[in-house]
Amino acid sequence: MNEKLLEALYSIITPAKIEKFERIAAERTRHVTVAVENLYQEHNASAVMRSCDCFGIQDLHIIEKDNKFNVNKDIALGAGQWVNHYHYTDILYPTTTCIQTLKDKGYKIASTTPHTDAYTINDVPIDEPIAFLFGTEQTGLSEKALDLSDYYVKIPMVGFTESFNISVSAALTINTVRTRLENQENLNWKISKEEQTALKIEWCKNIIKNPENVVKDFMRRIALENG
Length: 227
Hints:
Blueprint: H1 2-10, H2 15-25, E1 32-37, H3 42-54, E2 59-63, H4 73-76, E3 84-88, H5 94-104, E4 108-112, E5 119-120, E6 130-134, H6 143-147, E7 151-154, H7 166-182, H8 193-207, H9 211-225
Parallel strand pairs: 1-2, 1-6, 2-3, 4-6, 4-7, 5-7
Helix pairs in contact: 1-8, 1-9, 3-7
């Protein structure tokens, strides 16, 4: 059914968009995901979302215990249309809820912190699905996030400054890990064909007018064709 719906939606968008959707969906991954905790500067939040899109990370998890995640459209450049973002706003335990949700999906939790000599982004295990957690510049990740993590990870640095800007840290981390994944021969880390189809349907809906009505009409026609 989804294949037929996608075919119908492709009939009303441009060939250029179709080519782009096909090419980009084939490179998307959920093997790696990103979670951010209490970001309060919208330019950082927007830059992280944009980096996820640029490096093919399909899902972004957003913990909003103290600060609301605000997107600056001039920085994000529409990335929110293409990246799935999940918000955790539970008043008492949003960090726990987010991390437990990720663990239930099979992710190892990797907290990024400059205060440890554990793994670096160059050697942290990536054979299993992994979620990288990033905190605020001033305070870093909460104690709860650190306590619930499977790994501590840092970015190698050789200067006086103790840490990178959060958006830079996220970009460096996912770029490095993406490169490492590209070099893995026996790891199936890209999303499945079925996931690609579902994703392309959502992307089509993002660029057409009255998407719900259009989809409903196409689904009715498909049902009639199938008798």
